[in-house]
Structures are given as structure tokens and as C-alpha cells.
Amino acid sequence: LDEKGLYVHVNPAYANLHGYLPEELIGQSWKKTVLTEDLTLLEACQHELALRGSGKTEVEVRGIRKDLSLFYKHVVVIYARENQLGIHGTYYYFMRDISNRKHSELQLKIANEKLTQSITELEARNVEVVTLSELGELLQTCQNTQEAYAVVQQLGKKLFPQDAGALYIISASRNLVENVSMWGELKSEPVFLQNI
Q1: DSSP letter at 66?
Q2: Which residues contact 108 (CB under 8 A, 6 or more apart)?
Q3: What is the DSSP string of 19-55?
Q4: pLDDT, tens only, 112-129
Q5: Are 10 and 26 in contact (CB under 8 A)?
Q6: How much is the pTM?
Q7: Which of 113, 141, 166, 193 is most buried (most C-beta within 10 Å)?
Q8: CA angle, residues 11, 66, 101, in degrees to nearest 5
């Protein structure tokens, strides 16, 4: 590339990867081969190299082909104040297609997120199983119903941490329902008539 960012020489493999013939890119801006949203990344590389006066930097951006399809590319930018032909301020771009690697990284990220979600769900189920086992053991040791209601209230919070809930008992006459244990912020009548 020359100082204005126009192609001076184009490697046939580079042109082919972008869907062009080499001669179609000569005199064109490099910006037409990079997705608009990623232009600032490469411009920042050029600016940094220009300030240094020479050197090399690397960046990953999304490339855009002649048919407007996208792909990922790893770009190495080298800046020379003067090249062998005496042209001042020359940028050399070396690029390789990393679409397969990016696709693999995305698949790995998705698989990792699914695995993390599965682990979280398994841990939650394990807590539920342990709590239910604990509830069963504690209920068996209760001496009276009041103790049992207290156990249900205590472990109800553990079993349903995001929810409010209550335990209701139907009276012996079967016409009243009484709230005997409650957890969370539940708005409920302590006793109400049962419709039979």
C-alpha cells in the first residue's frame, strides 16, 4: 500500500481470497476489503506504526469479499518509511484466513456456556435432593405438628429460595383451610373456608 492506503501491488492469493483479480484491487483503497465496523482497528495500527516511524503490528478483523460475504482474517501490518523502489511511507499487509479457527472458538464458547449451565442446574438439583433428604429426616424426628411446621418453614426457604410459599392443613371438620407454615413474602389469609 502507498501512503494514501491504496494498493500498489496485490498478491494473487490475497486477491483471490477477497474474490478479486489482482488488477481489480490496484489503485483501490484497502478499506473496501475490511468490514466497516472493524476499520478503526486497522487504522489504529497504521497510526501507531506511522508514529513509530517503522515496525510491525498484528490485528484480527472481519474481511469483506467482492460478493459482500464476510470472513475473519489475521492481518500483519509492516510499515517502512521508504521501500526498495524509493516509495515513501509504504505499508505491507500480510493476511491469512482464520475463519475456521474463529468458528471453532465460537463453537467452543457455546459448548462451554451449555456446560456451565448444565453444571449450575445439576448443583441446584443436588441442593434440592440434599434438602429433601434433610427435610425427611427432620420430619421423622419431630415430636409434634408444631415442630414439623417449623421444619417445613425453615427448609421451604432452601427448597424454593426465589419463591414464597406456605403449607396449608385442612381442618378435621373439612370446612377450614389453615396456613400453618409460611416462607418468603407471601400475602395470604391465615384461615379460609373451603368450598366443598
Answers
A1: T
A2: none
A3: T--HHHHBTSBGGGGB-GGGHHHHHHHHHHHHHHSSE
A4: 999 999 999 999 889 889
A5: yes
A6: 0.55
A7: 166
A8: 70
